[in-house]
Amino acid sequence: CNMELFELIQTLNTAHGPSGDEGAVREVIAALARPHADEVTADTLGNLIVRKRGSGPKVMLCAHMDEVGVIVTRATDEGFLKFDFVGGVDRRVALGKPVELGPGRVPGVIGMKAIHLLSREDMKKVPKTDALYLDIGASSREEALSMVPLGTCGAFVGPPERFGEGLFKAKAIDDRVGCAVMLELLREKLPMDVTFAFTAQEEVG
User: Fold this and answer.
1) Dist. CA 110–CA 92, nearest whole Å
2) Annotated catalytic residue: which of 100, 121, 202, 203?
3) How far apart, in whole angstroms, are the C-alpha atoms of residue 62 and residue 114?
4) DSSP category for residue 98
5) φ and ψ at residue 179, rounded to 5 degrees
6) Contact at 8 Å (CB) between 68 and 154?
7) In this structure, are residues 25 and 65 in contact, taking their beta carbons and an 8 Å threshold?
8) For residues 159 and 178, what is the distance between their CA atoms, to the nearest angstrom?
9) Do residues 32 and 25 lie in contact, with contact meaning Cβ atoms separated by under 8 Å?
10) Among 56, 60, 2, 69, which Cα is nearest to 198's?
11) CA-CA distance, 36 to 183, in Å (whole number)?
12) Could you confirm whether 202 is annotated as catalytic?
C-alpha cells in the first residue's frame, strides 16, 4: 500500500459510519470529492452520488461507506446500556471491544457478567447478544440515557495500523478501501462519464 493511499484510508477510518448513520463519513468523503467532481449530491437513503463528466460511455462505480456497529436499545437500572449489533458482527470477538457512541463519541466498552459469576456450562458457550452490555461509566439508568439516548448508534474503535510485510488492518477496512480507491480515481482525467456511488446500509443488506 503506498503512503498516500494509506493516509487516505486513515482519514476515512477516523469517521464513523454504522449502517443507517453514515452522516459523518459521508461528510468526509464529500469534502474530499468536491474539488475533483462536477456534481456531489446525497439521496434520501444517504447514498453519496459523485459525478465527473466526460465523453464516451457512462460508467458507475460503487463502494459502500457504512460499517458494522451497535445500536442502543435500552438501559438497566445500574447504568449499563443494552444494545443490538448493526450488521454481521461475530459475538465471539465482541467482548472487550471499545466503541464510541453517537455524534459526541461517548466512549464505552462491550462487557458481560464477570467470569467468576458464570457457570461452567456458560463458560463453554458463545454469549448471546442479550447477555452483553455497554459500559459507559454511568451509575444509573437516568445518567446513562442522559449521555446516550435510546437509538444511538456506535462504531468500533481502532485506527489503521501497519503490520507484517506490506499489510495493514482497520476497523472499517470493508469498504473504506473501496471508497479510497474511488476517491483516488476521481482525481484523474477520465475518458468517460463516471458516476461514483458511495453507498449506505450495505452491512444490513
Assistant:
1) 12
2) 202
3) 44
4) E
5) -65, -40
6) no
7) yes
8) 17
9) no
10) 60
11) 9
12) yes
- For residue 26, what are the contacts with CB-CB under 8 A and spacing of at least 6? 17, 42, 46, 48, 65, 198, 200
Distances (CA, A) of 62 to 104, 153, 175: 29, 24, 10
**pTM, rounded to two decimals:** 0.89
Contacts of 101 (CB under 8 A, 6+ apart): 70, 72, 81, 107, 108, 134, 136, 148, 152, 153, 154
Is the link from the previous residue into 43 a cis peptide, with omega within 30 of 0? no
How far is 90 from 101, CA to CA, in rounded Å? 19
Per the model's pLDDT, the better-predicted residue between 85 and 124 turns out to be 85
Q: pLDDT tens-digit profile of 118-153?
A: 566 665 666 788 889 999 999 999 999 999 999 999
**Which residue in this structure is represented by grid cell 459500559?**
135
Alpha-carbon distance of 154 to 103, in angstroms, equals: 9
Q: Sort 22 into a burial class: Cβ within 10 Å, 0-12 / 13-18 / 19+.
A: buried
Burial class of residue 183 (count of CB atoms within 10 Å of its CB; 0-12, 13-18, 19+): buried
